[in-house]
From TrEMBL:
Gene Ontology biological-process annotations: fatty acid beta-oxidation
Pfam family, one: ECH_1
Domain 3-hydroxyacyl-CoA dehydrogenase NAD binding: 291-464
Keyword Isomerase in annotation: yes
Protein name: Peroxisomal bifunctional enzyme
Pathways involved: Lipid metabolism; fatty acid beta-oxidation
PROSITE patterns: 3HCDH
GO MF, one example: enoyl-CoA hydratase activity
GO CC terms of this entry: peroxisome
Quaternary assembly: Monomer.
Localization annotation: Peroxisome
Keywords, comma-separated and alphabetical: Fatty acid metabolism, Isomerase, Lipid metabolism, Lyase, Multifunctional enzyme, NAD, Oxidoreductase, Peroxisome
E.C. no: 1.1.1.35, 4.2.1.17, 5.3.3.8
């Protein structure tokens, strides 16, 4: 709702009230319409101020209402009516003015903001465009060039940024006084202004269109945003608004908008974690960490040190290899400086000390181990840590998938051991899997989750199983990609199909970037390859492709060696080019194993890679290794480049139709009975049997089925 009060004198104050962010629900919109009418009718009122309760102006349209029928007064005529009134209306912005909130402010005649307020039009991130006049009013106020950038990226900025664009009349530490009465409002109605455009407007629009198509392949909203701004640049306001409405209607009814809105809420759902034990975010206290240590300063350890230091935590960084230590002590401060600059932090706040002696971690409150993926080495490090650290120190491992319980078992306090699985580069990637074992205490989980949040990560609590959630699902995906090569595909063909779907990189380009030795080491650790293991296409009772092992044996470890599934300009090169060597190698491999190459359709490539991964997601939910589909989807969107406009693998399964996924898995499993990952999961079958409920209902269904022992 919105409340009305008369300030001493002649100012009417309208306060939006809809905690936590005063979103424009039907009730708030009705409140605005009613209170503006009241102010107009009151002869004593000469000006109106609109503000938000609890120091927040408005977080935009109420996203929760998008799923139901539109009730209450529509936003566009409401804002238009405000702009048309003959008493000056000012928006007094504190906290946030986002989306529809900023559009409301653009309909007001004046905008003043607290210096710490955050403003922006993030609709594109929800699969929409600023459809309450924002795409037409903003460029008329700040010019086409700046509006294109803001609307197509959805970026949010503080008041000083918007002051410099003349969007705000006042930006100060206090917004208690506004004096706007007695001046002509003609020039204050943004819909009446021309849209300032640069001389090369067509070229600007063309270039922006190319850029947005490259940046988010297959996403509809950024393209529609550019089209709406083209209309603002070339059409009168009324026609521009018609274009805005048409584009918004198309977007609003698209699966992409539903996917992106689901992704918004998933990110928040995973913060409200709960464990099978009943421990959860609201009943488990977290410790605040101020001193931490990182063990092993390779690829991951360096990034983790930077991520910790950026939050103001003092870090002891330990590395046993002299050369690695010397290199890290040069590289890490530079990485820290660069990242602090990128985040506009004046000076990196945390203090880092480098050491080759594990004894130096004795004073810290939390340790993150990031040594090689080798269980016996990790056990040795954990034994050592438990003997040198103070009692009560949290011991965490960055392992990609090894058993956290085994590590916990060699320590004095198994309850204080959890996995903190970062993603490379650890100071940049948003995802953190927090891995709990049966003995991990709620306090340890809560502390790791909160530490992740402090580092700006999306932290997801996951159970302890090989590969945890993300890598466990990646395994069948990679496996299918390798099988497709055996059957006749090339790395480029597979990558093109996956990139067309929206992944920033196909599976082979991604593997080259991560380093092919990472998986090789894991397969060796699992006894699947290495000296003494026979080079057959069946291992441990199931189909196995030795292709990636043989590529590594040829010294091709990906970008780092300048050769992998592709060739690069040299070690560390970034541009992937197809490599004749790979084609010859694949032909020789197929001949050796009596395989006849066939032409494989893009649909088969996509189905086999994605549905095998999704099927494992259902197995993970069934095993209670993830609390719900949102957890899996957040992991894939934030850690594995799953295109956000497809919501995440589990959401995508719902969009495709669970019946269809089941039918295709059955088909592929029939053709490849020696691939257990293609056998449809029991949970998937159960969901189809009960009529394929929407993804939002799965958590409840799974819990019920578990109680009745159906899973
Ligand atoms: C605001 C934030 C920056 C706050 O961040 P933080 O403090 O970190 O808190 P959070 O945990 O993120 O959030 C707290 C809490 O609030 C909930 N929440 C936040 N924002 C919203 C919101 N806008 N609506 C509802 N709920 C919100 C959040 O979920 C949390 O709750 P919890 O989940 O229970 O924990 C940050 O939250 C943020 O960035 N929020 C999003 C801001 C945003 O994106 N705003 C834009 C919204 S879209 C918009 O405004 C759209 C438009 O302007 C277009 C006009 C729409 C017109 C209507 C549709 C008409 C359709 C016509 C065509 C169809 C016709 C036909 O079919 O025929
Ligand atoms: N590289 C990746 O993309 C990811 C790796 N991981 C995991 O992170 C861990 C580290 O991986 P990377 O950084 O890639 O390995 P890396 O090989 O780049 O670095 C490991 C470092 O640990 C050091 N080290 C070995 N034993 C040590 C000891 N006893 N004490 C101190 N330092 C020691 C090594 O000298 C080396 O510098 C592994 O468990 C890996 O599975 C997790 C996520 C992603």
């Amino acid at each position: 709702m919105a409340t009305y009060s008369r300030l001493p004198g002649s100012v009417a104050l309208i306060t939006l009230q809809n905690p936590p962010v005063n979103a424009l629900s039907a009730a708030v919109r009705q409140g605005i319409v009613d209170t503006v009418q009241r102010a107009l009718k009151d002869p004593k009122v000469t000006s109106v101020v609109i503000c938000g309760q609890n120091g927040k102006f408005c977080g935009g349209a109420d996203i929760r209402e998008f799923a139901g029928p539109m009730l209450g007064p529509p936003l566009v005529p409401m804002i238009h009516a405000i702009e048309a009134v003959d008493k000056p209306v000012a928006a007094a912005i504190e906290g946030v003015a986002l989306g529809g909130g900023l559009e409301l402010a653009l309909g007001c005649h004046y905008r003043i903001a607290h210096s710490k307020a955050l403003l922006g039009l993030p609709e594109v991130t929800l699969g929409l465009l600023p459809g309450a006049g924002g795409s037409q009013r903003l460029p008329r106020l700040i010019g086409l060039t700046a509006a294109l950038d803001l609307i197509t990226t959805g970026r949010q900025h503080d008041s000083s940024f918007f002051s410099s664009l003349h969007l705000l009349c006042v930006c100060s530490q206090s917004i208690s006084s506004v004096c706007v009465s007695g001046q002509s409002l003609d020039s204050r109605r943004l819909s009446t202004l021309p849209c300032p455009c640069p001389p090369d407007v067509d070229s600007l629009l063309d270039k922006t269109m190319v850029k947005v198509r490259q940046r988010s392949r297959g996403a509809l909203a950024p393209v529609a945003c550019v089209q709406a701004l083209m209309a603002a640049a070339s059409l009168p306001y009324t026609q521009g608004m018609e274009k805005e409405r048409d584009l918004l209607t198309t977007l609003f009814n698209s699966g992409q908008a539903r996917a992106l809105q689901y992704a918004f809420f998933s990110q928040r759902v995973v913060g409200k974690w709960s464990l099978p034990s009943g421990a959860s975010w609201d009943n488990s206290a977290a410790r605040t960490i101020s001193k931490a240590a990182v063990i092993g300063l390779g690829t991951m350890g360096r990034g983790i040190v930077v991520a910790l230091a950026l939050t103001g935590i003092s870090v002891v960084a330990v590395e046993t290899q002299e050369k690695q230590l010397a290199e890290a002590s040069q590289v890490v401060p530079a990485m820290l400086q660069r990242e602090a600059g990128r985040r506009s932090l004046a000076t990196p706040p945390g203090v880092i000390s480098f050491s080759s002696n594990l004894q130096d971690v004795c004073e810290v409150e939390l340790v993150i181990e990031a040594v090689f993926e080798d269980m016996s080495l990790k056990l040795q490090v954990f034994r050592h840590l438990t003997s040198v650290c103070r009692p009560g120190t949290l011991l965490c491992s960055n392992t990609s998938g090894l058993d956290i319980d085994r590590l916990a078992a060699v320590t004095q306090s198994p309850g204080l051991v959890v996995g903190m699985h970062f993603f490379a580069p650890a100071h940049v990637m948003k995802l953190l899997e927090v891995v709990y074992g049966p003995r991990s205490s709620p306090e340890a989980v809560a502390t790791a989750m909160q530490l992740g949040k402090r580092m700006g990560k999306v932290s997801v609590a996951v159970g302890n199983c090989p590969g945890f959630v993300g890598n466990r699902m990646l395994k069948p995906y990679l496996e299918q990609a390798n099988f497709l090569l055996e059957e006749g595909a090339t790395p480029q063909q597979v990558d093109e199909v996956l990139e067309e779907f929206g992944f920033p990189m196909g599976v082979f380009r991604m593997s080259d970037l991560s380093g092919l030795d990472v998986g090789w080491r894991i397969r060796k650790e699992a006894g699947l390859t290495g000296p003494g293991v026979e080079s057959t296409r069946t291992r441990q009772g199931r189909r196995y492709s030795p292709l990636p092992d043989q590529v590594c044996e040829a010294g091709r470890l990906g970008q780092k060696t300048g050769r992998g599934w592709y060739q690069y300009d040299g070690p560390g090169g970034r541009v992937a080019r197809s490599d004749h060597w790979v084609n010859i190698f694949l032909e020789a491999y197929r001949a050796e194993h009596g395989l006849v190459a066939r032409s494989i359709a893009p649909e088969e490539i996509l189905e086999r890679c994605l549905y095998a991964l999704i099927n494992e997601g259902f197995n993970i939910l069934q095993d209670a290794m993830a609390a719900g589909p949102e957890d899996i989807d957040a992991i894939y969107v934030f850690g594995y480049g799953w295109p956000r406009h497809h919501g995440g693998p589990m959401f995508h399964a719902g969009q495709v139709g669970l019946g269809r996924i089941l039918e295709r898995l059955q088909h592929h499993h029939h053709n490849h009975p020696d691939v257990p990952h293609l056998k449809p999961s029991t949970l998937l079958r159960r969901l189809v049997a009960v009529g394929s409920p929407p993804v939002q209902k799965w958590r409840e269904f799974i819990n019920k089925e578990r109680v009745h022992s159906q899973l």
